[in-house]
Structures are given as C-alpha cells and as structure tokens.
Write a structure and sequence with these properties.
Elements (H helix, E strand, L loop, with lengths): L7 H6 L7 E4 L6 H13 L8 E5 L2 H18 L7 H20 L11 E4 H11 L1 H4 L6 E2 L4 H12 L6 H12 L4 H13 L1 H9 L3 H26 L2 H16 L27 H11 L22 H14 L3 H12 L7 H28 L1 E2 L1 H12 L7 H9 L2 E4 L7 H10 L10 E6 L13 H10 L7 E4 L2 E2 L4 H14 L17 E2 L9 E7 L3 H18 L5 E5 L8 H7 L5 E2 L9 H14 L4 H9 L7 H11 L19 H20 L5 H12 L8 H17 L8 H9 L13 E5 L8 E6 L14 E7 L5 E7 L9 H26 L2 E11 L15 H27 L48 H20 L6 H6 L1 H11 L6 H17 L1 H7 L3 E13 L2 E12 L5 E6 L9 H11 L1 H12 L6 E7 L4 E5 L5
Length: about 1100
C-alpha cells in the first residue's frame, strides 16, 4: 500500500480478522478488491475454508469474487509483482497457499470449497438442510418470475365471495373499489409479491393484539414527529405563534370559524410532543402556512383572523413569517404536521383493515397451495422458510446452532441494498456473537449508492447497523475515500455538486444519507470533461439529435474508448434509439428494447386475440389495420358500420360490397377475407402458436419486415405463445403480455460494444470512458395504488414498528394515515433519486455529458424543472445554465416570429393492395445431406423419441444447476426430484412403459455431472457463463438461430463452448465413438464458435460432454 493512497490506514485495518466492521466504500473505491483481501486474510487463520461465508446479491458478483480469490492463489505461486497493492494480495495469497498445503484443502483444484454465494442460494441451502423445519419437504423449483402464481392465488381468493368470513371481507373491500374485480385481482397479486414485508407483522398478533400494536405504532409515529417539530422551533418563536394563534382564533369571521386555528380560541398553553396535542399543532401550522401547499402565507387578511384595524397584530404576524422564512427545516416540519394521522383508528378504518387482514391471510394460504401444486416457489418463500428453519434469536433451532458452529466469519457485499427479510436473516445467523469471541461480521456497501427500493432494499438498515450494530453485535465503522475510476475533474465536480444537494443529517426512517467526499487517484482531466446540455420545453427529438451528435463526435475523437447512454427509465430512450439507428450508429442495448413493443408483436397479439375471440371487435380492427391488410381509418369506420352489432368476421363471408369502403379498401379487404376464413376451420385442431404462424404467413406478415430484429421478435412471440398455450387455447392473455414484456432484443453482434445503452440501475458496478445522461428533466410514471399502504420505523429498542392504512375508497380523498405514509414514501424516493444520479455520474472515467429540459410557465420567465425529475435534484448545480438558455431563446423567438414549423407526415407501411404470396421455386434436394444439414443418429446411440426427451430434461436440469449455483446441489437432492423428473418426462410424451428407465437415465446423467470433476467444472460459476444461450448469427447461408448449451470464460481468459450429448456407448471402441461424435457435430460447433467470434476477440475452445458416461471430447479447432 503506497503512501499516496489517502485511506491506506482504513484499508489495512479492514484486514484485522479479529474485529467486525461495517465499511462505506464509495463509487470506484475498490470494494470487491477489499472483500477479496479480507477473505484471503481469513483463510490464513481458519481451520476449514467452509467457516467463511461471503454473501453477495447476484451470481455475477459471487463468481467475480470467487475468481479473484482463485486468481490470487494462482498468482501467488509465481514471482512477486512490482506494484505495492498487488504485493499485498500476492503476500496474502502466499500465506493462504501455505495454509492450504498444511491442511490439504486443495482450493485451486476444489474452488467450490470457497463459500461465496448469493443470499438466495444461502436461503435455499438452509431450507434443504432442515426440510421439516422449513416445511419444504421435497425441494421445489425456485421461480424468478412468479407473477402467474400470484395471479392464480388472487383469483382463487376472489372465488370465496359469499357468506364466509373471507367472502364478507371481500365484499367490504370490493365496495371500496366500485366492485372492479380486475383491479382488485391485480392489487392483491401485488401484495402477495411483497408479503415478506407485512405478513409476519400482521400474523404475530390476534385481531385485538394487532389493533393495539398498530395504534401503538401510530402513537409513536406522531410523538416522534411532534418531538422533531418542537425541537426545531425556538421557544421564543413558539410563544409568539401561540399568542398570535389565540388572537386569530378569537377574530375569525363566521365563515371560517371552524378553521384548524380555531382550537386556540380557548387555549394558551404551549403544545407538547404528546400526540393528544396534534390538533393544537395543526392550528399553528394553519396559522402560518398556505392552504394549498407547504409555503408560508403571503397575505394576512381578515379571513385569517386579522382585521384591518389590528395593524400592530398584523405587523407582529408579518415579523413572525419573516423569521420563519429563514428556517426552511422548521417550515417543512410544520407542513408534515398537517399530514399526520390521528394516533388511533376510527371504527370505519379498523373495519376495512380487519377485512383486508382476513383477505390477505387467505390469499397467502391460497398461494401456498399453488406453490405445492406447481412444485415451484418464489424467492420470498425461500427466504421465509430459511428464517423459519433458523427459529427465533432467543430460541434457535438445531440448524441455527449448527450454523453457529460452522460459520465463523460472515462477509456481506452491497449491504446498503439489504431488505428487512435479509436483515432478519443476518440477525439470526449472528445471534449470540460477541466481540473477541473469534467470530466476525464484515459488511461492505455504500449508502450513497442504495438505489433498489423497488426490490425492497432499505438504506435505513445500513444506517441503523452503523449506529447500533446488528442485534447485540457492534460494528466498527470504516470509510474508504479514494476513487480509482474517475479523473480528478469528474471527482471534483461530483464532490461539489452532491455535497451541496445530499441531506445534511442522516435519517434512517426517511432514508436520508449524508454525502462522503472522494479523493481522486487519477490526475486532472480536460476542462470540458463535464458538460450540461440544457433544453427548454422538452423537445425529445432535439435531445435525441444532441445525444447522437455527442456519440458521433466521441467515437471520432476517441475510437477505442467505450461510451454509455444511461437513462432513468427504458421509456426515456424511445426517441434516442431510432435516432441512433437512423444515424448509422451501432449500439448494444442491455435489456432495453422489449420485444413486446415491436409493432410486429403487437400485430401478432391482435391476430391471436381475433382468432381466439371472433367477437373481439378491437382485435379485428387491429388485424385489418395491420400492414398485411393496411386499411385506413375511413375504411375501418365503413366496415364497423357495415357490421352493425354483429362480429366483423361475418363480413368475410359476404360477397356484396360494403357501403363507404374505398376502391382500394375493397381490394385489400377481399384479398384477406378468404385467408382469414381458413383459421376457423383449423381452430382447436392444431397448436395455437402454429395456427397463428400459418395465418400470419398466409397474410404476408413477413413481407414488410425490414430488419432482422423484427423477424427475431416475431419468432420469440411465437415461441412464447407456444409455452403459454394450453390445449390450443390461451387461458391468460395477461400472463402472455407479461412474459413478452420480459423478453428483450439481443445485443447487436456487429456493434462491438463501444456504445452501450442501458438504465442507470443496470449500470451500477460498471464504468465507461464517456457517460451520457439524457432525459434528466423527465419524470417517472406515477405510483400505483396498493390495497395496503405500510411503512416501518424503529422504536426505542431498534425493533421494527409498523404503521398501516388500507386503500382509499374510489373517488374519496386520502385519509391522513394513507397520506402520511405516501408522503414518507415520496420523501424516501426523492432521496433515492439523488443517489441514483450519483451512481450514474460516477460511472464516468473521463467525460460526463448531461441533457435535460426545463419549462417556462405562463406565470414566470424563469425555467423550472419538473418537481419529481432528476433535474430537480440537480438544479442547484445547473440551474444557471437554463437561465442563460432562456434569455437566448427569447432573443431567437423575437427574430423568428411569424415563421411556421413544418413537420414531415409519416407514411403508412403496408403491403400493396394486390399482394399475393409467391410460390417458391422448385427445390432440388441432394441425395445425401451433410452433417450440418441433417443430424444422423450415430451407430452406438441409445436412439428413439424417448432418448430425445431424456436429453431435453437433462438439459433443463443442468441449466438449473448452473444458474442456481452448483454448491447447492448434490446426489441426494437430485434423487429427491425423482417424481418431478418423471412428471416432466411424462409431460413430454414418454410412455408409461419407458418412464422408469427414462427417469433413471436422467438421474444418472445429473448425478454423474455432479460427481465428475469435469462436470463440476463445466457447471461452476465462471465469468461470462451462460446456459441455453440463444443467438441469431449471420452466416453465408443467411440468418441462423443457434442455441449453445453452456459457454463461459475460464481462468486463462479462454472462451469455452460446451455441447451436452446424452448418448450412451453400448459396445465398440469408446475412443472411436467419441471421435465419430466429434466429427458429426463439428459443423454445428463450428457455427457456434464463429457466432461468438463475432462478439469478442479471444481464444475459443469447443467440446462435447456426455453426462450419462462422464465422457469428454474436445474438438481440435482453433478460432480465427
């Protein structure tokens, strides 16, 4: 460690393996490196590597940490490096190698002994160890997308409508929503997704106990706010407020006699923090604040209780307002008082809450039944069962005692994004730990980068742990400050900007985090490294052109560097991506372009609806409007009128002309009428996806597809439809739409990755030479209503206290409890918005560009940002840029007044009116197909349909094992899935006679893969690992769709492509069999190699793996 590093002492202290720490590691400070060093230092002192557990939040992070540890051990076997930082890692690695040799661990050969795992993997492992305590029994599959399960449970709950307790409770809640069952189903499904936040707290009491607990929370909440307000107001100010409030109350006109300040008519005592004084505080707030917002009153009139003749009192009131104007914090707290709820529920409120509790508990029980029937659970359930298996802190189970014995050191990454469930898990795992007892907890994170509230992360838990520890375990605080990523110019700007905009005080309840300055390790950058590009009145086309020009210029000036375009929401890229394509700028969009938004997918969805529901008029009009028909709006209106009250489909069989239909409309309608009759003759006779595809082809759907991504979108839609359909029907269109929303266009293989487009959230942990932040002036979509609003805050002992409010009645104003909770949530979101902006800005190494728009309202010549935009958070630093722009804009408007703006009218994209599908030319098939054209069954293969189905199931489970983490799998777990494997084979069509043998073959293949060292290496967590990796590659023969079973990058930076083969060798020469298989699949694997070779420049090796035989054959090919 060199003396130049400002936080060298803090980093050295972090390697003291006898102490527990919580480390704040700001952007670019080398958090992963510090965790790696701590892990290595711990390995030097433990008896077994399994005594150390490192917890990450993503498999990628777990894989990176494990790889860094192994790389350190491999490097330690060589010569010492020159750099002092690398010498620290090298020396630690040497000590670990010596420990490894003495204790015969074999870490390099057995890296899976390093327990670096995700929080989900840890919870799943806890549930498997104690299946009875966790109530799991046989292990279910963990679903990353469980929305369909929540909807199923919600629908089953709605079936309880009637005279039962649950049915009556449903009636109460539905009446509040105008009996909108669809809305209620969506809201209830959303509650089930977040049940870990509220279920435990509403289940720990009976009905009466629940009311007492919640009202205790309300009482405490009100008292805390009143204490904060009382502390913020000097006594002299408060006394003046009380005196003037009493005067105003006595002089209110009759029409305002019930105003909140009227409570001071018969009162003179100063208000206290007792919740019973809340009305008195509201009266004081009403005295000084406007009725429409949080601002101080501008006028003092008779309506407020100050008659014109009372000039002295009016002057005193004005002086009070002037003094309060200098204390923004006190004014804000006065405004909060107006939103505070009463410290107890009304009977009406409690009736609704009781009804909601009854329905929610029943819905959870329905969800558990759905989980059992489907054999799958969500991550929330895995967490809940893990907590259940560990027992309570004061009554630990045998599993908790065993884990306490086995785990001596815990390391937690990204601690700022911990949820309440994960925090409870850490408390249980460390229950009973004390300083100097040989057990340590090491938490690393950065509260300034906590940006995942939508995933239930609560930065207040980080602040709470730093202030008071976790449970009884106190944590020493360390703060890193050196940024190894960004130039000094960027760091200086970030320090100036965010130190002025971050909160001055930490507040765990509201998520307020103070700013910690960084020190640049790299030298000063250019003076124009940071530029803001202001715009007025949100011209999205202009912003898109600015972004394109910035990208074009940067690529020209720095052709070898990487550029990132980061936005708050995917929708903020709607104008930028087309502009990039139009400008010919290649880019990689990371989970941005949802295939569901492609027009071809929308058209196919309309066609699917129309074929399934002939009376769906909107769907049929969409079909007739789609490019394969292309009727204009006037023709659609004529057809709708002609159909009258009958389904539009009736017109397809009518030969007479349709009144009002244009001549071209007649031609277009007649062309497709016969085509659209055929699907109804084939309905229910073939799979739905096949029916939709054949109809689309017959209509000429692909004729107007201009880009390969459009064809990719159509193919993915049909694939998804085939998965969602049941018996040639579709039970749930919402499930199909949700599945499509989660499908994204693959990255362009020709882009080279120099320009990347993603959301700010997705960019966390990444870095780029140039970062462009457009759309800062735009606001996110509004929050949706929830059946239940709730919020946590800690009591005096640090325990969680819950406040709850039911959804408001349709059309009614929000009640005070709901308003306060939503106000608290908005405050939390505003704090997180600022942190999100910090994350985005600190991705930049050398250059940072920001784009945003502000509005000039009719009441002001000064530009103002939208209240909830990121620009509003940044305004103190960039507002002056907009003032200059506004002045320039006024001058330009004066010069161009009278000129009209012309816009180009977009043309309608559709097939020609007389289009007909062309018959293909005669095809001459060769007598002998080459291996790449047709797969020929090898002589020694266990052949037949059953064999293919065995291969399908083996592939599925190998993908699951690799994605969930091989450390969580063993032979016993595989055997426990016997019934599910049998069911999967049966669903694929394996006959009853072949089921036992096929099941045994699947189990054999999976167990072999786990027992074979080569198999474990293939399935381990590698860099760049993918399973069932789908690619569309451009080959000499045209576009070709490829699916790679397994690919990853090994420790030598070599890309491996592995293809699983579930054949069995039955006699003959094994080497000959493997050689024959290698030859047979060489063309296929060569195509895989060529496709990946277009995406990256590195050595690529390819091989076949045979799970049923533990056999391996590398193909002798080298990448170009």
């Amino acid at each position: 460690m060199t003396a130049e590093i400002a936080d060298a002492a803090q980093r050295a202290m972090a390697l003291d393996t006898g102490r527990s720490f919580i480390v704040q590691a700001p952007a670019g400070s080398g958090k992963t490196s510090l965790l790696t060093q701590r892990f290595l230092a711990l390995l030097c002192r433990v008896e077994s590597p399994e005594e150390i557990v490192a917890i990450t939040f993503t498999r990628k992070a777990a894989g990176e940490m494990r790889n860094r540890i192994i790389e350190a051990l491999v490097s330690a076997a060589g010569d010492a490096p020159e750099k002092e930082y690398e010498q620290t890692v090298w020396q630690l690695g040497r000590e670990v190698l010596e420990q490894d040799r003495r204790k015969q661990w074999g870490l390099i050969e057995n890296p899976n002994r390093l327990r670096v795992q995700t929080i989900d993997s840890l919870c799943a492992g806890l549930g498997r160890r104690m299946p009875v305590l966790s109530s799991f029994g046989g292990q279910p599959q963990i679903s990353d997308e469980a929305d369909h399960l929540y909807r199923m449970a919600a629908r089953r709950t709605l079936l309880q409508l009637g005279e039962s307790a649950t049915g009556k409770a449903l009636g109460v809640l539905l009446s509040d929503l105008d009996n909108n069952i669809g809305q209620f189903e969506r809201l209830l499904a959303g509650m089930l997704q977040n049940r870990d936040q509220w279920l435990r707290l509403i289940m720990q009491h009976d009905r009466q106990g629940m009311r007492e607990s919640l009202e205790q929370g309300l009482h405490m909440l009100v008292r805390n706010e009143l204490q904060a307000l009382s502390a913020s107001l000097p006594r002299a100010i408060l006394e003046r407020m009380v005196e003037l409030a009493a005067f105003a109350a006595a002089h209110l006109p009759e029409k305002n006699s019930s105003a909140p300040v009227s409570i001071w008519r018969d009162r003179r005592a100063l208000p206290t923090a007792d919740p019973e004084d809340i009305q008195a505080w509201r009266g004081l707030a009403n005295l000084v604040l406007t009725n429409s917002g949080p601002g101080l009153r501008k006028r003092i009139t008779v309506n407020e209780g100050f008659p014109p003749a009372e000039r002295e009192k009016k002057a005193a009131m004005q002086a009070l307002l002037d003094d309060l104007g200098e204390d923004e914090a006190a004014v804000a707290k006065l405004d909060v008082v107006r939103h505070l709820p009463e410290p107890r529920y009304s009977e009406e409120q409690w009736t609704r809450l009781e009804s909601l509790r009854e329905v929610l508990v029943h819905a959870v029980l329905e969800l558990l039944l759905v989980f059992a029937e489907r054999g799958e659970v969500d991550h929330v359930e895995v967490m809940q069962r893990a907590l259940q298996a560990l027992g309570e802190e004061d009554e630990p189970t045998d599993l908790a005692l065993m884990m306490d014995y086995r785990i001596r050191h815990l390391l937690v990454d990204e601690f700022q994004d911990t949820s309440h469930g994960q925090y409870r898990l850490l408390r249980k795992l460390t229950a009973g730990w004390e300083p100097d007892d040989g057990r340590t907890l090491f938490c690393v994170g950065d509260p300034m980068q906590s940006i995942y509230r939508f995933r239930e992360a609560d930065v207040g838990l980080y602040l709470q742990a730093r202030q008071g520890g976790i449970g009884d375990l106190r944590l020493e605080s360390l703060n890193l400050c050196v940024n190894f990523r960004s130039s000094a110019t960027i760091i200086d700007w970030v320090n100036r900007t965010f130190s002025a905009t971050f909160p001055e005080l930490e507040q765990p309840v509201s998520g307020a985090v103070t700013y910690a300055s960084s020190v640049a390790h790299h030298p000063q950058g250019a003076s124009n490294s940071i530029l803001f590009h202001p715009m007025l009145d949100e011209d999205r086309e202009l912003e898109a052109s600015v972004v394109c020009e910035l990208v074009r210029q940067t690529l020209a000036d720095y052709p070898e560097e990487k550029i990132a375009i980061l936005t708050r929401a995917k929708s903020h890229l709607a104008d930028i991506l087309p502009a990039l394509r139009k400008a010919g700028i290649l880019y990689q969009a990371v989970d941005i372009e949802s295939l569901a938004h492609h027009q071809v997918v929308r058209d196919l969805m309309a066609l699917t609806r129309a074929l399934l529901h002939p009376a769906d008029r909107i769907a049929w009009l969409s079909v007739l409007r789609a490019p394969w028909c292309g009727l204009d709006n006037a023709d659609l209106l004529a057809i709708a009128r002609a159909a009258g009250d009958q389904p539009l489909r009736r017109l397809f069989s009518v030969n007479e002309s349709i009144e009002g239909l244009s001549k071209e409309g007649h031609l277009r309608f007649a062309r497709i009428a016969d085509t659209l009759q055929e699907p109804f003759r084939e309905a229910r006779r073939q799979p739905l996806a096949k029916l939709v595809e054949s109809t689309w082809l017959a209509l000429g759907g692909p004729a107007l597809l201009q880009q390969s991504v459009e064809l990719e979108a159509a193919e993915r839609f049909l694939e998804t439809l085939s998965v969602q359909e049941t018996g040639s029907d579709l039970e749930d269109f919402a499930a199909l739409e949700e599945a499509l929303e989660k499908l994204f266009a693959p990255p362009d293989p020709e882009s080279g990755g120099k320009v990347q487009v993603m959301t700010m959230h997705k960019a966390k942990g990444l870095e780029f030479d140039t970062v462009i932040l457009p759309g800062l002036g735009r606001i996110p979509r509004n929050d949706t209503e929830q059946l239940l609003n709730w919020s946590y805050f800690p009591d005096e002992q640090g325990n969680e206290q819950l406040v709850m409010a039911p959804i408001r009645e349709t059309g009614a104003d929000r009640e005070a409890i709901q308003s306060y909770i939503r106000l608290l949530e908005r405050t939390k979101q505003q704090h997180e918005d600022l942190r999100l902006l910090y994350v985005a800005a600190t991705r930049a190494r050398k250059r940072l560009h920001m784009c945003g728009s502000a509005r000039i309202t009719a009441n002001s010549d000064t530009p103002k940002p939208s209240a909830h935009s990121l620009l509003a958070r940044l305004w103190p630093a960039v507002g002056h840029e907009f003032d200059r722009l506004a002045e320039h804009d006024r001058q330009m408007q004066a010069e161009t007044e009278g000129e009209e703006e012309t816009r180009e009218t977009p043309s309608l994209r559709r097939v020609p009116s007389g289009w007909q599908p062309q018959a293909p030319a005669a095809i001459s098939w060769p007598q002998q197909l080459t291996p790449v054209e047709r797969e020929v069954a090898p002589e020694f293969l266990w052949a037949g349909t059953t064999a293919r189905h065995v291969g399908t199931v083996v592939h599925r489970y190998l993908e699951w094992i690799a994605n969930s983490g091989i450390d969580d799998w063993d032979a016993e777990r595989i055997t426990g899935y016997r019934d599910r494997i049998t069911s999967a084979l049966q669903a694929l069509g394996v006959t009853h006679h072949h089921l036992p043998d096929a099941t045994e073959k699947v189990i054999l293949g999976l167990r072999n893969s786990l027992e074979d060292s080569r198999g474990r290496w293939i399935l381990a967590n590698h860099v760049g690992a993918r399973c069932e990796y789908a690619l569309t590659a451009r080959t000499p023969g045209g576009l070709r769709r490829l699916v790679i079973d397994r690919t990853f990058i090994d420790e030598d930076e070599t890309r491996w492509i592995i293809d699983y083969k579930t054949g069995i060798h039955q006699g003959g020469n094994l080497d000959g069999f493997l050689a024959q298989e290698a030859e047979r699949y060489s063309a296929q694997l060569g195509a895989y190699r060529d496709a990946l070779g277009q995406l990256e420049e590195r050595e690529i090796r390819i091989a076949l793996y045979f799970p049923l035989m533990k056999a391996w054959k590398e193909l002798e090919m080298t990448s170009a």
